[in-house]
Amino acid sequence: MTNKRILITGAAGFLGSHLCDRFIKEGFEVIGMDNLITGDIKNIEHLFKHKEFEFIEHDVTKFIHIPGKLDYILNFASPASPIDYLKIPIQTLKVGSLGTHNCLGLAKEKNARILVASTSEVYGDPTVHPQTEDYWGNVNPVGPRGVYDEAKRFQEAITMAYHTYHKVETRIVRIFNTYGPRMRLNDGRVLPAFIGQALRGEDLTVFGDGSQTRSFCYVDDLIEGIFRLLMSDYAYPVNIGNPDEITIKQFGEEIIKLTGTKQKMILKDLPTDDPKQRQPDITLARKLLGWEPKVNRAEGLKITYDYFKSLSPEELTKTAHRFE
Ligand code: UDP
């Protein structure tokens, strides 16, 4: 036991649940908070047996009351896939702005250090490649992704303001595409989409001509980077991601090979403002945190595929979005 107490918002989500696991393992007392709009209680059910774990169902856009001391806050509450924020745009804006404001106010009140989850989306459709932290981005504020991108940009601004004006200890992680067990099968992201399609015997839907690129980081690597950043003394944004960049078409080919599906790739319309390229420059994380990813895509995809294969047939066929 460390005697340290941490609040993790978005605890029932993909990243939040892995963070809960990690901090329980480190001997922290963990309070997980989630309103379960996009999160799933199944992701954290295994933690209920730990007396150091507590779950509070709460919407962080409303005032957050936590009795007792808090040493750390991780703000991971937000829808995080294009389909989610297209379907719940106002909630997405509110959680990034009002939710972050509440978390920062709580950090100030409790004298706690807070780390907020930002994103490579702050770079928009980037004209600088790979993306360094000092690039300001190319974001369309009124496009469909604007609700997420601008909420996250506002989040960074208000976090820096609390750091500068209220002397709150703040950390900002810019998270690039991450994958692993507990991703939601129907969230529209490319990895669960492709693996789900392969498992159901459907063709893989490639958006556009598949020449757009992404760089995928395995979840354990990301969690390690976040842990190190939280424990560091650096208040400015830090990219955490895997620089191994591939086209979406190549990615589809890898999934076809991995799953052994007989299906093919079919082309669909490219969504509006879909970034053409994305690769983190992780020079800063390497220098500052001594961090770099350790799990290559072949290893990470195998673990993730095994997770999706273990889901029940009902879960696998539940392709409709939760808000439909
Ligand atoms: N994508 C695709 N087929 C799908 C889902 C996504 O080709 O069924 C593409 C999407 O257009 C984007 C890339 O895969 O270029 C990554 O999409 P995702 O939603 O996973 O993340 P983001 O666009 O936020 O990086």
Low-confidence segments = none
The portion of residues assigned to helices is: 25-40%
Helices and strands, in order, run as EHEEEHHEHEEHEEEHEEHEHHH
Strand order of the largest sheet: 3-2-1-4-5-6-11
What summary fits the major beta sheet? 7 strands, parallel
What is the highest CATH level, the class?
Alpha Beta
What binds here, in terms of ligands, is: uridine-5'-diphosphate
Number of domains: 1
Extended strand count: 13
Which of globular, elongated, flat, extended, rod-shaped describes the shape? globular
CATH topology: Rossmann fold
Q: Quick one: CATH superfamily?
A: NAD(P)-binding Rossmann-like Domain
Straight-line distance between termini = 44 Å
Question: SS-based structural class?
Answer: alpha/beta
Estimated radius of gyration: 19 Å
Could you characterize what this model shows?
With 324 residues, the chain is α/β, with parallel strands linked by helices. Helices cover 38% and strands 17% of the residues. It has a single domain (5-317), classed as Rossmann fold. It is built from ten helices and 13 strands. The strands form four sheets. The chain has a seven-stranded parallel sheet with strand order 3-2-1-4-5-6-11, sandwiched between helices. Strand 5, helix 4 (146-166) and strand 6 form a beta-alpha-beta unit. The structure holds uridine-5'-diphosphate. The site of uridine-5'-diphosphate has 15 residues, from helix 5 and strand 8.
Per-chain topology:
Elements lengths: L4 E5 L4 H12 L3 E6 L18 E5 L14 E4 L6 H6 L1 H22 L2 E7 L26 H21 L3 E6 L2 E2 L10 H11 L3 E4 L5 E3 L1 E2 H13 L5 E4 L4 E3 H12 L5 E4 L14 H7 L7 H13 L3 H5 L7
Parallel strand pairs: 1-2, 1-4, 2-3, 4-5, 5-6, 6-11, 7-10, 8-13
Antiparallel strand pairs: 9-12
Helix pairs in contact: 3-4, 5-7
The protein binds uridine-5'-diphosphate (UDP).
